[in-house]
Task: inverse folding
């Protein structure tokens, strides 16, 4: 596995992932995420039963947010594995009734609420971006240049279209 498709860790669990160059999108093994969030002894069976439960209860086909990708297994061979991008993975996590999934669910609720607020007052998202950059150690000068550069790019792009 090359660096782009290396394992990522969540607590003591390894999560297999794949970067699709053409889409510029990460895909993560659903089975690995289910194993990490449920501590199930058989995460494949858990995932199978979960898909049936969600379809029955909510009428949602979780398989539609997945792609089958060949990922290496513990035996070194590659097998077709259900994988989801970040958006699909977050949808799947919402359906996992596990205490370990709760922090993700709370975070999703918070981000969703913030996004709804931003739609009513777009300046909030600009303030939030500035705050994130400050937290990452960016200077006020760097932040101002970044904001001005984005504004210039937006104006140039609007003219082209």
Result:
């Amino acid at each position: 596995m090359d660096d782009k498709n290396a394992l990522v860790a969540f607590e003591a669990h390894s999560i297999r992932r794949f970067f699709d160059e053409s889409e510029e999108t990460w895909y993560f093994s659903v089975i690995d995420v289910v194993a990490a969030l449920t501590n199930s002894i058989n995460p494949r069976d858990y995932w199978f039963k979960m898909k049936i439960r969600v379809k029955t209860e909510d009428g949602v086909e979780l398989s539609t947010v997945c792609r089958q990708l060949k990922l290496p297994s513990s035996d070194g061979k590659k097998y077709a594995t259900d994988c989801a991008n970040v958006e699909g993975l977050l949808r799947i996590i919402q359906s996992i009734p596990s205490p370990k999934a709760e922090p993700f669910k709370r975070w999703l609720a918070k981000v969703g609420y913030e996004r709804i607020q931003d739609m009513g007052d777009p300046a909030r998202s600009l303030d939030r971006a500035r705050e994130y950059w400050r937290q990452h150690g960016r200077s006020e000068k760097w932040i101002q240049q970044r904001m001005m550069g984005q504004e210039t790019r937006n104006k140039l792009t609007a003219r082209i279209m």
